[in-house]
Amino acid sequence: MAVFDKVLVANRGEIAIRVFRTLRELGIATVAVYSEPDRAAAHVAYADEAYLVGGGAAAESYLNQAAVLEAAGRSDAAAIHPGYGFLAENATFARACEARGFVWIGPPPDAIEAMGSKIEARERMRAAGVPIVPGVTEAVESADAVRRLGDELGWPIAIKASAGGGGKGLKVVQSPDEAERAFESARREGEAYFSDAAVYVERYIEDPRHVEVQVLADAHGNVIHLGERDCTIQRRHQKLIEETPSPAVDEALRERIGAIAVDAARAVGYRSAGTLEGLLTRDGEWFFLEMNTRIQVEHTVTELVTGLDLVREQILIAAGDPLSVRQEDVRFSGHALECRINAEDVANGFLPAPGAIVRYREPGGPGVRVDSGVVAGSEISGLYDPMIAKLVVHGVDREHARRRMLRALDEFAIDGVKTLVPFHKALLTHPCFIEGATCHGLVESELMAARAAELADGRTFAPDGVAPGSREVVRMVEVDGRRFEVRLLRPEPAYAELARRRRERTRTGAGGAGKDAIVSPMQGTVLAVEVDDGDDVEAGQVVCVIEAMKMENEVHAHRAGRIAELSVAPGQPVATGQVICIVSSDD
After folding, report:
1. CA 20 to 30 Å from 234, out of 79, 321, 387, 395?
2. Range of the domain at 28
3. Is 488 within the bounds of a domain?
4. Do 166 and 78 reside in the same domain of the chain?
5. In the chain, how many domains are there?
6. Which SS3 state, helix, strand or coil, does residue 359 take?
7. For strand 49-54 and strand 29-35, is the pairing parallel, antiparallel, or unpaired?
8. 344 and 459 both lie in a single domain
9. At a CB cut-off of 8 Å and minimum separation 6, what does 522 contact?
């Protein structure tokens, strides 16, 4: 019997489809919301009903609380599940849902609020006896204060947005000279992403492991943990690979940090699924970082080793049911790995790589799971997160899971956009990953970029400008007993013309000003401009900051010279290859 008749999922992409699947298993009707660019998105097609909530920008659609609530009312939904991101950790929205009579499938608004402010969360955890990273538990108001704290705590330090998460609003400061720029950047990101410019400072721990603990709590006083996840492999402080169990956590440590996580959840009156994120030092000390009051992207690996459906638990908890398992019933079986398959260009500093997917084929077989929100023909928009899919595998142990993941990566076919598939293959075959080390400094190294590029060159790819609607011709040939797949992606006439125009625009924007030009490496929005016409700059100096796909990217001067013809301003959209300014020199 269904616990709710109908549930609206206030999200998009793979997480919306992930939640829809569990709802269907429970016999619950599904409702999607979508923006104008997402009219033909996979999550819209999957749902029983779908409602337009606004234009392309997230602020006009998926973050438009009034429009989402109106859609819930029009659909007669009984409850709302926020997924992750967007409105998932918004206490105001959670309260608005409850005020309108919708059940909120998530933690109590008070708990979201308490843990949403990282400053308040640190103070609450300190008071509850939970170990926190050394630093302050109040907002820092100036760059001078940052410099004083750096001298007191020891350099480097981390400046963090109080309302931040996912690497947003986090700046590592190596020396006093970097304090002012980092302070302003962290505040700017906090305001832009979370409408809260408050920041705090804590000691930056060198080369830690990022180890988090999954908890479940119901309305009957039951709180349990489901072990740890290791999310150490990151770029720009955003996760790339997650696994459980952690290669660095034994049974005794698991019990210790699990108990800490349970105590922390109880301290804020938590209910639903949540995650205590922490740092594990080389000496085995574990420090609380923050609590994520939502389902996590990486919840999949926990599901594979425990056999539990965490979204199902969320729904039943929201319906008032007690947890389906007790702590003593939790069993961990085997090892699970997740690779985030994002549309990013590793060779270009992991910059987002939006575009159209012209071929898409997911891997399968024993122990392989793919959570995705795309099909062939889907457009990866620069407006949203660049995630295409999550590839997850389960093995009897870590080495079995690693080899299974490599097999699955080989089977994954995505053409039309650059992806992280070659990067993951390069990393999973590197000795540091095989040994279970932190791989500190490797992820964004030139060596890894070169190896990923080498692997990418061994795969077929879509010609530039090939768009959805292309006709694919496939032939199998045999040479000396080995089979090869030969493919031709042939654009229809209308798409061929579109491709020609795109190439022409790129040549005009990127090459028209010659070697003196600084051009935008991506499509996005200008957040800040750090120079003026006539300014002298050094090679590597920041010229402007561009936000794309929820990531802040600095654009640097490619050489020393004088700024001329500056053509961008804060808040202005820019296209890939668009000229930002000219750097003239005396050469």
Report:
1. 395
2. 6-105
3. no
4. no
5. 5
6. strand
7. parallel
8. yes
9. 351, 352, 382, 546, 548, 553, 576
User: Does residue 500 sit within a domain?
Assistant: no
Residue 479 resides in a domain: no
Distance CA 174, CA 195 (A): 27
Token pair, residue 433, equals 């990953």
- Do residues 198 and 218 share a domain? no
Residues in the chain: 587
Q: In this structure, what CATH number is given to the domain that contains residue 441? A: 3.30.470.20
How far is Cα 196 from Cα 317, in angstroms, rounded to an integer?
A: 30
Decide: helix, strand or coil at residue 577.
Answer: coil
Alpha carbons 104 and 99: distance in angstroms, whole number: 10
By the 10 Å C-beta count (0-12 exposed, 13-18 middle, 19+ buried), 45 is classed as exposed
Amino acid at 463: P
Tell me the residue type at 354. P
Residues 88 and 47 in one domain: yes
pLDDT digits (tens, 9 = 90+) for 306-357: 999 999 999 999 999 999 999 999 999 999 999 999 999 998 888 889 999 9
pLDDT tens digits for 488-514?
A: 555 544 444 444 444 444 444 444 446
Strand 29-35 with 199-203, pairing: unpaired
The residues, any chain, with a CB within 8 Å of residue 537's CB and separated by 6 or more, are: 531, 543, 557, 560, 561, 562, 563, 583
Q: Would you tell me how many other CB atoms lie within 10 Å of the CB of residue 379? A: 18
Q: What is the pLDDT of residues 174-221, one digit of tens each?
A: 999 999 999 998 998 888 777 789 999 999 998 999 999 999 999 999
Is residue 280 a contact partner of residue 208, using CB atoms and an 8 Å limit? yes
Judge whether 280 lies within some domain: yes
Tell me 247's DSSP state: T
